[in-house]
Amino acid sequence: MKPILNLDEITEFDDVEENGLYTSKRALFSASIGARQLGYNLTVLPPGKAQCPFHVHHGEEEMFLILDGEGELRFGDQRYPIRKHDVIACPTGGPEVAHQIINTGTTEMRYLALSTLAEVEVCEYPDSGKVSLVTGRRGEPGLHKIFRAETTVDYYDREKS
What we know:
Elements: E1 15-19, E2 22-28, E3 38-45, E4 56-57, E5 62-68, E6 70-75, E7 78-83, E8 87-90, E9 99-102, E10 109-116, E11 120-125, E12 130-135, E13 144-148
Antiparallel strand pairs: 1-2, 2-3, 3-10, 4-11, 5-8, 5-10, 6-7, 6-9, 11-12, 12-13
């Protein structure tokens, strides 16, 4: 295993989304360079697209380095223009650090994404009121559920009394 990868040599993308606004391609390469506690990927966003819905992590912190293109960062209740060589910190927390990158430019946006890897991760999606719960190491079986936040039940719901 070689611990080095040149981003210009990436030609295969193993995570491709084509879902309206959420259209992107990502090359996930953490394991191939020997990473154990951090996740790495190269993301390519076409103009007018976002990689994922507006969200906030409770277990994993993210960092993004814009390599090419320009766009907008939604962060909490703010919007910031972003461009080549901007470094973006997305810490864990609540709605005040929810985030989303949108390509508002006319050319493809490319960025390097880096995140810590948590064995238990909870994400909230403020725009849609969803919650995601994921357990286990990446690539291994675990629990993965997405549900609407308003479906909260009592602690003893469906338990025998």
